[in-house]
Design goal:
The complex is a heterodimer. By secondary structure, chain A is an all-beta fold. Chain A contains no helices and twelve strands. Chain A has strands spanning 3-5, 10-14, 19-21, 24-26, 31-38, 44-50, 56-58, 64-68, 73-78, 87-95, 102-103, 107-112. In chain A, the strands form three sheets. In chain A, strands 2, 5, 6, 10, 11 and 12 form a six-stranded mixed beta sheet that branches. Chain A is globular and about 45 Å long. Chain B starts with a strand and ends with a strand. The radius of gyration of chain B is 13 Å and the shape is globular. By secondary structure, chain B is mainly β. Chain B contains no helices and eleven strands. In chain B, β4 and β5 form a beta hairpin. Chain B has strands at residues 4-7, 10-13, 19-25, 31-38, 42-51, 54-57, 64-66, 76-78, 87-94, 102-103, 107-111. Helix content of chain B is 0%, strand content 52%. The chains are: A mainly beta, B mainly beta. Chain A binds chain B through residues 9, 32, 34, 36, 41-46, 49, 51, 90, 94, 99-101, 103-106, and chain B through 4, 6, 31, 33, 35, 40-43, 45, 48, 50, 58, 88, 90, 92, 99-106, 108.
């Protein structure tokens, strides 16, 4: 069975500083990987996705993520965080032939002034 | 605008009552999903449906029921058998051969 680990429950970053949120997955097949963002009391919004090809993917709001097969990781990065980025971030994994996604438990990002 | 609507945003019920949460999409997506979200637990899959008149149990289906009579609609009933129904419920959909899921705004259910 597939699993997703987001090791950090909370992360605090100063506004303007760089950000990296970690995601590790366990999967037998080639994974499809996603990052979602959720503001309090809202639904999830897709930030970016990886299916195949270039292992560095660009998403919305200035986010990017890099797929590293050797490390089973798909870490989310942003060079300069804005206060509006404060939210909860979820990593998810799926695969060809599977109709469901498995979500990590999320990382809450706090942005300090 | 295409999207997913969930209603109501907040729902209050007394213990022992069944309650139905609405989920409608106009994205022409085949697959629809229901998740439960509790603090620190991430998203847990309750039920999903890949086609009209067919659905499958997810990881935590006990105490819940669904129907899929129309492509656009996938209502979730929280029955009195669900021991801890208070939670945030999210509905999602995905298109044919598309693995990315699009989410509705959620319904917060409080049972007292």
């Amino acid at each position: 069975a597939q699993s997703v680990t987001q090791p950090d429950i909370h992360i605090t970053v100063s506004e303007g500083a760089s950000l990296e949120l970690r995601c590790n997955y366990s999967y037998g097949a080639t994974p499809y990987l996603f990052w979602y963002v959720q503001s309090p009391g809202q639904g999830l919004q897709l930030l970016l996705k990886y299916f195949s090809g270039d292992t560095l993917v660009q998403g919305i709001k200035g986010f990017e993520a890099e797929f590293k097969r050797s490390q089973s990781s798909f870490n989310l990065r942003k060079p300069s965080v804005h206060w509006s980025d404060a939210a909860e971030y979820f990593c998810a994994v799926g695969a060809l032939g599977y109709s469901t996604l498995t979500f990590g438990k999320g990382t809450m990002l706090l942005v300090s002034p | 605008d295409g999207g997913i609507t969930q209603s109501p945003k907040y729902l209050f019920r007394k213990e022992g009552q069944n309650v139905t949460l609405s989920c409608e999409q106009n994205l022409n997506h085949d697959a629809m999903y229901w998740y439960r979200q509790d603090p620190g637990q991430g998203l847990r899959l309750i039920y999903y449906s890949q086609i009209v008149n067919d659905f499958q149990k997810g990881d935590i289906a006990e105490g819940y029921s669904v129907s899929r009579e129309k492509k656009e609609s996938f209502p979730l009933t929280v029955t009195s058998a669900q021991k801890n129904p208070t939670a945030f419920y999210l509905c999602a959909s995905s298109g044919d051969r598309s693995y990315e899921q699009y989410f509705g705004p959620g319904t917060r259910l409080t049972v007292t």
